Amino acid sequence: MSAPVATSPGTEPLLSVEELHAGYDAADVLHGVSVTVGMGEFVCVLGANTAGKSTLLRSVSRLVPRSRGRIRFAGTDLMALPSHAVPGLGIAHVPEGRHVFPDMTVEENLRLGAFAVRHDPAISGRFDGVLRLFPRLAERRRQRAGTLSGGEQQMVAVGRALMLGPRLLILDEPSHGLAPIVVDELHRAFLDIHAGGTAILLVEQNTALALSVASRGYVLESGRVVLADTADALADNPRVREAYLGI
Amino acid sequence: MRPSLVLAAVALTVAALLPLTLDPAGYLIRVLTVTLLFAAMSQAWNIVGGLANQMSLGHAAFFGIGAYTSTILLVNYGLSPWIGMLAGAALGAAFAALVSVPTMGLRGHYFALATLAFGEVMRVIANSWPSLTGGPAGISVPFAPDSLLMLQFKSTLPYYYLMLAALVLVTAVFVVTKAGALGYRLRAVKENPDAAEVVGVDTARVKTIAAVMSGGIMAALGTAYAQFTFFFDPETVFGLGPISIRVALIAILGGIGTAAGPIVGAFVIIPLEELANSWLSAGTAGLSQLVYGILLMLIILVQPRGLVAPVEALAARWRTRRAR
């Protein structure tokens, strides 16, 4: 079980990142990273703080100014697109650090999530779905997002991403700085979202939690993939256990 | 009717009737005319500064482009300032699009400094190209008898109404923009540019559109100013203090991002400047500037979110009460 696990052999994965070099200003952060996410798959990326996990996710959303390599999503070459064209393809990105629109209400925040697909008649149904997934947002519907607690803001950010009706949901450190009870609630929601058929690419500092929800994972170290395996195998891997699980 | 509309109608009626009680050749109506012009300029700045949250300190560039374009066309070719105004607005809009390219990725102070530099560059160019602009000696609008076509009048009264119409027009553009699709996108960009981009808002395009609108309007107002004063030099239309900082200050002090902010700000700052100058300039040199500065600081300290902020808060409370 040490070789990278392929996703349903014979078919092209939903997202494929090949030999990605990416970075900011002077130095590259990623040095030839290859990652795939299959249709409806739940994949996590593990690693220390400066391993390049966020840079990988931000490269997929075309938010990293300098990048070369190949990124394909459902047959489309993402490298040829500007960042604002990415959500229209069905990639929803929840950036690190709870990026809500603070002076907009919860409802306005959610509705803006469907901006790229604003003529889609399915939007109102999705809106109800988000409020069912996070009932607390229904109570806070007319409240300014900036006045919510950290956990609630993260729910807004995730709910906003779901308004796109994404085929791939990118989650960057969604539980960072949140109380354990809220983290559990969020991760239950992620499992629900995944069960609905959405592929998820998750970056998470909390390795145990990430491996408990994802089916496959990659370990990044200094901008390179050093391990790629099923979540169960990674959880049993001595190197992962020592470095990231502290066992 | 919404209370803000009632308030606007009352203010407009007062503004339309007020000159009838004033000496049409007097000092007061000139101050009011300048106040209306600066309110309109600040409202144009508000499209970029208030809606896109881009603190431009270079709006004099557009203003000066408008003033010089129409005046040069008038002096050299006898073209009506109305045509010059359109040409100037087109040039101002084009220059705004051009400046947007290098400043697009800049945020906060860096954007302010970059725009400040562009404004200063225009001032230097105007000073060092006397064959076109008249250089530091300035340029005069050639005298013509009273005529709407040539936008020239002996009395201040027509200029008062010209500036009032300009202010109403620019404010309408601001309100419609803010409430429309572009305003929605600009709000997203203003509140969180990264999040706006990941939901699919083309932040660069949205900011450029706002800059082009703002720059074009600012240039048109430059023409109105040139026709009103008859004479100007690079310092008066491209100046950092006289134009760029002033229009930003008026909007910030009145209430940035609100339609009423630049109007309230202009009606506080411009008369205040005049009072400080006329009452105190006879005394110790620099005293008027000192008093003016202290007053500005007091206003900022007491009402940091702008003079219209308490009214806005009151209106918001009234709306929520009615919504229940």
UniProtKB/TrEMBL annotation, chain A:
Tagged with keyword Nucleotide-binding: yes
InterPro entries recorded: AAA+_ATPase (IPR003593), ABC_transporter-like_ATP-bd (IPR003439), ABC_transporter-like_CS (IPR017871), BCAA_Transport_ATP-bd_LivF (IPR052156), P-loop_NTPase (IPR027417)
Occurrences of domain ABC transporter (ranges): 15-247
MF terms in GO: ATP binding
Keyword tags: Amino-acid transport, ATP-binding, Nucleotide-binding, Transport
CDD domains: ABC_TM1139_LivF_branched
Family: Belongs to the ABC transporter superfamily.
Protein name: ABC transporter ATP-binding protein
From TrEMBL, chain B:
Main location: membrane
Keywords: Cell membrane, Membrane, Transmembrane, Transmembrane helix
Organism encoding this protein: Azospirillum oleiclasticum
Domain of life: Bacteria
UniProt xrefs under InterPro entries: ABC_transp_permease, LivM-like
Stretches that traverse the bilayer: 27-48, 60-77, 83-101, 108-126, 159-177, 247-270, 290-315
Membrane topology field: Multi-pass membrane protein
Protein name listed in UniProt: Branched-chain amino acid ABC transporter permease
